[in-house]
Amino acid sequence: MSELSDTFARDGAVVLRQVLTPTEVAKLRSGIDANLARPSANSKTASRAEDTGRFLEDFCTWQSNPDYREVIFTSRLPAIAAELMCSGTVRLHHDHMLTKEAATQQRTPWHQDQPYYNIEGRQNISIWIPVDPVPRESTLELIAGSHLGPWLMPRSFMANEARWFPEGSLAELPDIDGERAAYRILGWPLEPGDAVAFHMLTLHGSAGSVGRRRVFSVRFIGDDARHAPRSWKTSPEFPGLAERLPAHAPFEDSLFPLVYVDCARTHE
User: Fold this and answer.
1) Three-state secondary-structure class, residue 196
2) Residues 119, 206: Cα–Cα separation, whole Å
3) Phi, psi angles (nearest 5°) of residue 56
């Protein structure tokens, strides 16, 4: 894993080949299908009504979805997250289901994840796991090195509204699609069992999808992660958390269970 860890530190993203077993992939596929059949109150449609497909997202359903829970808690993912984050501990921050049905035109705009969240700190990771084959043209794309900063203005995906940080308080996104040759853009065709791990500040986006593309994404945090209460609704939102978890406090709360401890690192 040392080579992957070095690549992650340099680029802010790595591909993980066959990191889940066929049984674990089947569990996630079952969990996603159950989630699609019964979306939670946190779900949202991220495509327009005239889209020939549909892009549906849902958040924070691990407590009610046993298939998600089993993969999060028993797979290799937390141990891999610890290694890539160089962290002695790993906590679950949240899960995120993203499904683009066949013929979905809506692209996922370029963005960083961390500005939407209530997290401060550098030790964090998202693991993006498709349960359907994903060709290169429909895959997640990432800008190598963008995790080193700066923070860029988060905007709503369809209306392009600054609902989080006030206008002008953060730098705007560059025109990546207009100047693709100026960036080192990472992206890999993926098969079920593969995953992409990336830092929450790594710029990423994706196109629409010709075929069905069901994805489960899990977000983990490490030793230096601290609560950053916001005066606005984060995405996802954790109602009532600010009342029981102070600013700059570790995420020691039942919403963010400890999923892995690397004893060697915690005793260094």
Assistant:
1) strand
2) 24
3) -115, 135
- What distance in Å separates the CA atoms of residue 170 and residue 112, rounded to the nearest whole number? 12
Instruction: Tell me the two tokens of residue 258.
Output: 């400890």
Within a 13 Å sphere around the CA of 230, how many CA atoms are in the beta-carbon half?
19
Cα(35)–Cα(144) distance, rounded to whole angstroms?
32
| Sheet of strand 140-143: strand arrangement | 108-111, 204-206, 140-143, 185-186
Burial of 264 (0-12, 13-18, 19+ CB in 10 A): exposed
Domains contained in the chain, CATH given = 2-262 (2.60.120.620)
Q: What are phi and psi of 238, to 5 degrees?
A: -125, 80
Q: How far apart are CA 250 and CA 222, in angstroms?
A: 10
Give me the helices (H) in 15-76, please. 22-37, 66-74
pLDDT digit string (tens) for 210-260? 999 999 999 999 999 999 999 889 999 999 999 999 999 999 999 999 999
CA dist 183 → 180, 203, 255 (Å):
6, 11, 37
Which tens digits make up the pLDDT trace of 157-170? 877 777 888 888 89
* Residue that has been written with the tokens 């009532």 in this structure: 240
CA angle 162–165–168, rounded 5-degree value: 80
